[in-house]
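Problem statement: downstream parser choked on a complex file, so we are re-checking the raw output for the adenosine-5'-diphosphate run. The parser issue turned out to be on our end (a line-ending mismatch), but while we're here, posting the original submission so the record is complete.
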Amino acid sequence: MTENINKDLLLKIQGLKTHFFTKRGVVKAVDGIDFSIRKGEIVGLVGESGSGKSITSLSIMRLVPKPAGEIVEGKILLDNENLLEKSAEEMRQIRGNRISMILQDPMVSLNQILRVEYQIGEVFRFHKKTNGSLREKCINVLKNVKVPSPELRIRDYPFQFSGGMCQRVVIGMGIANSPELLIADEPTTALDVTIQSQILQLMKRVQQETGAAILMITHDLATVAQICSRVMVMYAGRIVEKAPVHTFYKTPAHPYSTGLIKSVPVLGKKIGRLFSIEGQPPSLLNPPAGCCFASRCNMAKEICHSEYPPEITLDENANHRVSCWLHA
Ligand SMILES: Nc1ncnc2c1ncn2[C@@H]1O[C@H](COP(=O)(O)OP(=O)(O)O)[C@@H](O)[C@H]1O
Ligand SMILES: [Mg+2]
């Protein structure tokens, strides 16, 4: 059993801490997180703005903003190899090849003054995968992500594409070298609501066809419900709950998770006023002792304000874990 789990394991993060050393003090953007992703699964990382989601993904890519940002502790194991021990050159080979990243705004990901064909071609040229006709390969990239008339469109510039079509191009480039892991950081946030759902469906299909695992970063629980099989909730630089998606919606264990679920409007249900969690997330500069959510939690006990809770396993088989004193 254990062996099987290990064989399926793709990414394992252990005790990761990424801090920013600023003039005002140390910002603990990621402050001791652990999680794993199995081959081919879609895992959601959800949390309010500023909770450390993007810095988590940049840490995995070893692209933490310098000079202030630094990974200070932990391990990032990709297929059992610690990425934190790789050289800069080895990381360049891993990025865009074994791990790809898709960002929020496709208009920023693409260079507006270079033809799409040239930019897609770069992905192959950089990783020296240029056997066969490069033009054919570029057309195939667009075909894979269902851009209409790919033979004509590769001649176009990004500004001639709509936002949704641009994001398709970016996703196509992301999967061009068959990565094992795709990190998507709020990939639909910059798009119109109607397009968002199409892009999510595309990502789901991409996962099924390529077998890549996806780490889907979002502040939106609807996105999680639509395509993820597991979810991890991040709050103030820590992961406070991990669960299969159906378990998470049925029996959320952390008061913050409960609050997040309650604040999502339910289709077809008349609601007077949408629930929202009162208060603000704490500053990651000098965060309070104890659980960072305690000051906003109506179930907080004394210990919650003084000591950070251990991670409690609620269901080993389902991998449902929570860091909260209510369950300790
Ligand atoms: N370059 C930086 N310098 C200092 N602090 C930063 C920097 N980048 C991010 N942070 C801080 O790290 C925390 C987490 O940021 P981020 O990962 O971008 O949040 P999220 O993606 O969840 O919205 C925030 O408090 C943010 O202020
Ligand atoms: Mg972010």
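For whoever reads this later: The chain has one domain: 2-98+179-327.
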